[in-house]
Amino acid sequence: MADLLQTDRNAGTRLRSMKIGVQGGFYPAPEGMPKDGITEWQIRRLAALGCTVHQIGFGHLPDDRGRLLEIKALADSLGMELELTAPGAFGVSGPHADAEARSRFVNAIGAASLLGMPVVRTGYGRLNVKTSRFNRSLGVREHLDSLVPALREAGKIAADAGLDLAVENHCDFTGREMAYLFDRMDLPNVGAALDTANGFTVFCDPRDDMEAMAPYTFTTHMKDMVIVDMPVRGYIPMTAQGCALGEGHVDLSLAVDLLEKHSPRAEGLHLLIEPGWMAWDPDRDRLEQEYDYFERGIRYMKNLLEEKIRNAEENHDEA
After folding, report:
1. Which of 95, 104, 142, 193 could serve as 121's disulfide partner, Cβ 3.0–4.6 Å?
2. Using CA atoms, how far apart are residues 107 and 16, in angstroms rounded to an integer?
3. What is the pLDDT of residues 2-50, one digit of tens each?
4. Cα separations (Å) of 130 from 124, 150, 198?
């Protein structure tokens, strides 16, 4: 009984600590805004909506050290933690080594360290067959094994900077295949960036990805997608399409449960909202729809966490 009480109490603590935010690459900035001003604008706007973490979008990060420190000071003043993607991780060494990729990765790690980030994310798949499990020139296990040297080296670079490195299931492998890759690592700072819906892109049930990757997850993309009939003859008769959180076939409630119970970084876990291949209404203003998507998603995630916190506390009181 004492163990159950402690479990419920810890569950509530972990859930309360989780941080809600958005993938800044998809959050629209006002037309004409200079790129090096977008991140600060997004931080202010999203903090006003109750977010406590923000993923800086590609191309939105200034190169100047002084500007980076200004962004950090702003985020700190608003209680906002930051995250970014470190591209090029799978080119730092090994069979896919590329000097330019290594430089991009090292520079991103340096910026992340300066910004005080606890975790950076990366991904292998580049939304094509070649960088996926469907590359016919390689068996899946052989393909995964070929990524180990680079990921191990990237993990060491991140560790030297005091950072965790999280690899997204980026339309490349199933969650169980990603788990095999993480098991090949000998670094505690290398784990997963769980995207809750990308399993559909490799014809995998997202629930299976969640169950396989939760024990490795350091950060997330909270994404929902709905299965719809394919309107074009000659293609697979059903396909996945982006939708508002809670309106699709991804069990986001289950995702939070699994992450709270099994993630090694459940305390303070980043729950970052990302749209997935949305079909926007052509009769409505696109910008208005995008803002509405994120605002509804933030409310959805807040309500989901609040409900789970209440349930944990009620279970504790009843016990």
Report:
1. 193
2. 33
3. 443 455 679 999 999 999 999 999 999 999 999 889 999 999 999 999 9
4. 11, 17, 17
Q: Is 192 helix (H, G, I), strand (E, B) or coil?
A: strand
CB-CB contact of 274 with 54 (8 Å): no
Query: Counting Cβ atoms within 10 Å, is residue 136 exposed (0-12), middle (13-18) or buried (19+)?
Result: exposed
- In three-state secondary structure terms, 9 is helix
Residue with the two structure tokens 């790690």: 109
**Helix, strand, or coil here: 218?**
strand
Q: Can you spell out the DSSP letters for 279-306?
A: ---TTS-HHHHHHHHHHHHHHHHHHHHH
The dihedral through the CA atoms of 25, 29, 34, 37 has a sign that is: negative
Tens of pLDDT, residue by residue over 250-267, are 999 999 999 999 999 999
For the chain, first and last CA: distance in Å?
8
180 vs 212: CA distance, rounded Å: 10
Domains of the chain (ranges; CATH) run 2-318 (3.20.20.150)
Per-residue pLDDT of 102-127, as tens digits, reads: 999 999 999 999 999 999 999 999 99
Contact by Cβ (8 Å): 20, 305: yes
